Amino acid sequence: MKKALHQSLRMALSASMLLAFAAPLTAHAAEKIEVYDSYTSKSSNVQLYSVSQLGNQFINAVIARQPDGTYAKWPEAFQHFWKYDSGNLQLTGMDDPEQAYVYDTQSQSIVRKSEYTLSPDGSWGVLERSRYERQPAGYIAKFGDQYLRNSATGKVSVYYSTQRYYNARWINQHTLLESGYNEAARQNVISTFDPSTGKRQELLKGTLNNLNLSKGLLQYVKNEPKRLPWIYNLKDGSSRLVKDNRELEALFPAPPSSRPEVNFPKDMVLKDLSAAEMPITLAYEYNVNLDGKSVDVPTVFTKGGQEWIPVKPLAAALGWKIEVMNISATGDPSAAYIYKITNGSNHTVLTPVNSFNSASRLYIAPAQIKELEYKSVKVTPYLK
Fold first, then answer.
1. What is the DSSP letter of 344?
2. What is the 3-state secondary structure (H, E, C) of 178-192?
């Protein structure tokens, strides 16, 4: 009797397990969508979110809320955005001016352009680009190149370049407050730089931690082991120790969280959203004219007094041929690259000695362009 009962129980359990596996799974909520930033137009119904979602496939995306309440996903090339002081949204890095995109909130379109942080009076703009360069010792060094644009002339130049930490921001009409490692002083220095005069003035030897521009105060630490918090007054140049944490929090309050709380549909899956079509406009900083042949280019800049013009747009418009050559042909095995640029029966060879390379983009000087049998090289900035 007991044996028959046990067999009946085993059969019942087996049947129930089979039914459990065979039964359809009930629907459940999708993985939570993390919101990193958001933008809502004040003049239209445009609502944008920079988001991510875990699941079968992790995804970052920019999504837009449609007029009917549904959501659509931007093209895959644009997976994030960050807000600029100008109100525009940065969609990509700025290292490569040929692949730098922003969302222009005025035109409500994506624009390929370099987005400079403008001074309060609008007379200057700055941006940083990272660049990697092979050193004589054989290692690859990372440089931070600081670009400056004169709004009145449209001219762009590299005003500072370093392998060390460097940070700058506008503190008045057109003065930059700089903080970083000073090679000459061999320590961290806080200074100001006036682009209209090219003059730099040291304020302190130390590291900038925080600032309150409305009160004209900087919070910094001296270059010493104790790393005590100090306050510097920009108005009178005085310094003093911070009294306590309460004073520190009162003078330099933490910024509010920029992550908004958004209630998306619980079953929304980012990778399944329909794609939204976005108009893309190409903006140009300069026009290059070679013997009457005109080509718009994303940028031209000077560094160390030398003017640099991007090769690729010129080659595409004028039919130049670009060849990668064997590095050993330079006679210098440490050379990072060698390119042969051909225009008809004429050519020039570009190496790190006579060209500039940043973000895998090659730049050429007017002297090398003339080796391609161009007599006139005219570079004209567009004024905005």
1. T
2. EEEEECCCCEEEEEE
Task: Say which residue the tokens 């057109």 belong to.
Answer: 174
Q: What are 233's two structure tokens?
A: 């007054």
What is the three-class DSSP state of 173?
Answer: coil
What confidence category does residue 13 fall into, taking pLDDT thresholds of 50, 70 and 90?
Answer: very low
Residue 5 has pLDDT above 80, yes or no: no
For 110, other C-beta atoms within 10 Å of its C-beta total 21
User: What pTM was estimated for this model as a whole?
Assistant: 0.85
Cα–Cα distance list, 352 to 142, 145, 198, 270, 283 (Å): 15, 17, 27, 44, 28
| Alpha helical stretches, state H, the chain | 2-22, 245-251, 311-318, 366-370
Provide the pLDDT for residue 29: 65
Report phi then psi at 140, rounded to 5.
-100, 125
Residues 6+ apart with CB under 8 A from 355: 308, 339, 362, 363, 364, 365, 368
Residue 123 pLDDT grade (very low, low, confident, very high; cuts 50, 70, 90): very high
Q: Which of 295, 383, 296, 314 is nearest to 355 (CA)?
A: 314
Q: What is the DSSP letter of 375?
A: S
DSSP three-state, residue 212: strand
Residue 66's pLDDT is what?
84
Largest CA distance in the chain: 109
Phi, psi of 67 (to 5 degrees): -55, -30
Phi, psi of 370 (to 5 degrees): -70, -20
**249-260 pLDDT, tens per residue?**
999 998 877 677
Q: State yes or no: pLDDT of 27 exceeds 70.
A: no
Burial 115-143 (b: 16+ CB within 10 A, else e): bbbbbeeeebbbbebebeeeeeeeeeeeb
More confident residue, 221 or 18: 221
Bridge partners of residue 68, in order along the sequence: none
